[in-house]
């Protein structure tokens, strides 16, 4: 067993301290000098493999800048990655759990030492400001530390309790599944990419990790940390590729044992469907873990501390431009305090500054042209579905830089069934919905097909207890923002169309990547 202290989440960096801002700026310089323009090849069986075609990472805040490139895997590369991973599995599955966990702990130490570099790279590659990038790298470190420790409870024959039976020894053991595919999104390209590969790997599986097309550099940086930490060849196959080609190939492949996917509802449901079809020669029912989108609502009632509510709304809605599955995209306010809350929300949000991640702006650019066009479509719809109280424009440039810039936008008096109130926008756009009273507000909150995060700002104990039972979300927050779950503290994952509620950073997450075997010996 590991001899280490109990898990504690990483503290965040305090950017009100000038020396921390200076350190961040020094890291930005270092990354610009050393990592910009870098190319990450595929890694298959421990060997770096390049491809004829490449994937480019573009700075969303200055689209004239190519941040760097990765190789672009083909289906032949995917086939070789599968072969090698199954070969590596034969040995990796025999490693002691604590030996595997030590690799995660070593990777955590390496990432801690390069924390600001990882942050700075994300500021440039996906436009995160300092705090958003730092929270994410802290989460990535937490995943390593937390999963290394949780692995211990699955180790050995006696790991799970069984009832004693006369004349026999009975036991239940957890075994890895085999080779799986991990497909991750661009919006948490460090933490989610890393968490989704570290968990199955520590459980004894081998993983083909396919990062998102828009954020291959930070993924390459993280994969290198895992290799440097000592992962044997073939245990982690790094395979940047186009999702609809190579992702599809792998999810439908007969030799893929499990799929762990975080991304949009449309792609997640498609994967769920195609993965269910048994392919010729397939020996198992694929295990599919899905973490999808949200249309997350926060209720404010007439008993709430309105200052707390407004702060929570601004943080929850506009952190990383609303590009979080957990983002507060519906603010549901009871009629009695509607005007006060909305005025406060608009006033506070109007102070947010637009700019680049490197400038540490509050609102930066959305990730790519597709996202920009999608969000712009909702801005065009906004005047028909409500009153645009703030923003409403997508200037596409800021401070002389051309980028995917969209204003922080608040749309008031949106009807509960409107598209702005039902569809995931994934940008800095909030629909404010007026509720008659508390019960109406709760009904509105539950009136979507999603069920990821939600919140209530209220001082009424009975209502909070009712919400605890009846608000249909995987992560519910009272009197605070509805984003920013911390590993081990707030296990994260949604219900309904938001996913399979697998709870990343939770006590049973590793069980998603294991199978149980009961063994009985009669004496
Ligand atoms: N629930 C959560 O924990 C969580 C966390 C982060 C993001 N998200 C969701 O992710 C979405 C944003 O991320 P995105 O734009 O990268 O999502 P996306 O669904 O477009 O892409 C996610 C990944 O799937 C791949 N992919 C695309 N088509 C595929 C296919 N046919 N087969 C296999 N793989 C395929 C992509 O290449 C990418 O790596 C939002 O909906 C957001 O809410 C959810
Ligand atoms: N886990 C993150 C959201 C990840 C999705 O984008 C949060 O809790 O805010």
From TrEMBL:
SUPFAM superfamilies for this protein: ALDH-like (SSF53720)
The protein's enzyme class: oxidoreductase
Protein name: L-glutamate gamma-semialdehyde dehydrogenase
Enzyme Commission code: 1.2.1.88
Secretion signal span: none
Origin organism lineage: Bacteria, Thermotogati, Deinococcota, Deinococci, Deinococcales
Record's keyword terms, sorted: NAD, Oxidoreductase
Associated pathway: Amino-acid degradation; L-proline degradation into L-glutamate; L-glutamate from L-proline: step 2/2
Catalytic activities: L-glutamate 5-semialdehyde + NAD(+) + H2O = L-glutamate + NADH + 2 H(+)
Domain (Aldehyde dehydrogenase): residue spans on this chain: 52-519
A Pfam family: Aldedh
Family matches, as NCBIfam families: D1pyr5carbox2, PRK03137.1
